[in-house]
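Hi C.,

You asked whether I'd gotten around to modeling the 403-residue construct. I have! Everything is below, sequence then structure, no commentary in between.
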Amino acid sequence: MAYDVAGVRGLYTSLSDGWTYLNAHDTPQVPERVASAVARSFRMACGVSAPELSRGIHTRDRVGRPEGDAFVADARAAVADLAGVTPERVLLGPSLPALYLALTAAMRPLYRYNSSVVLTNVHNTQLNGILERADAEVRWALADLATGELPAWQFDLLVDGSTRLVAVPAAHAQLGTVVPVREIGERIRERSRAWLLVDASAYAPYRLLTFDDWEADIVAIDVAKLGGPQVAALVFRDEAMLYRLEENVLTMPISPGLAGGVSATVEHYASLVEQQNGRRSRRSRLVDSMGEASRYMEHLREDVYTFLGTLPMVHIVGYSGEAAEHSNADRIPRMTFGVTGVPSATVHQRLVANGMIATETSISKLLREMGVEEMGGAVTLGLSPFNTQADIVQLTRTVASLA
């Protein structure tokens, strides 16, 4: 079993337009399998299946019900396979902001006088803003300004018996730094019964997601960040947690047509490498497929950091500089960089002129404190399963031409 990048590229018909896409962090490409599944689901969602002529113990009891109901159930099962859990622990919603807003409202019974929540400045600003609405004191865990890493030790000081919720991302969406979720979870367990909420949206496209490895209570996944439809999910540690919440607040409808593309998205990631013969579960195939894809993209990540990092005028945020040179930070294949003396708009325009799609960095408070504004802005790159070594060479030559 080997990773065939040419075969993977064939799964994305959008790549035939000639652009080199390096913007998976912002607008991931949609696999043809997913686009076709969504189109088919919208056509079929309102239809009703014909009744089966014979009935037995394996007959589906769906007579007279729209096909769209099955699409939603299939979407829950697909997210469950992605996270390595059972479907009963999966709650679907139209977007992560909508689910975070519903969760904040549903957790009202858990908050008491002098309750607290712990947030981090490496998390999505919009999602942090929603969680700040909780009726509780907000405490902040801060990233290292040299590397962008989130030290786990500070949670010893921030979490206590009053803490009800701790929210962290599994990885920073722009810097690529991976958060030590398990260590944070262990420290929380020693001091509190607070729930740990982990946003895995940036992490899931690159590495196998296994819920139980993180000591988390809730894992959030935005399927759109994997190149899927606009559907999101919250995955709970166990069903009993739902009984402690205002469940009617958490219940929200999603489009059956969009839900029909979730299973295709997970199936896509389970099919990135050629599988062995025999009937195997989707989770088992995901383990093998994502393992090979992760190793391949890790090699690309090392190359892009090495090649761009050797250009003297390039500053990779959280990686370049004396303060960060001894860091062994774990990273996913994303990076944010600037070119000394060259505005980020100029860097971006040069990339586009050479057929490469990246984005000018959206500057958060953390990136501002790390000096991104002072160096004239930055450009963010996000690699995908279809990127190649040739893409990295083309990128390096283009950036080098700005010197």
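If it helps when you're writing up: The mean pLDDT is 92.

Thanks,
B.
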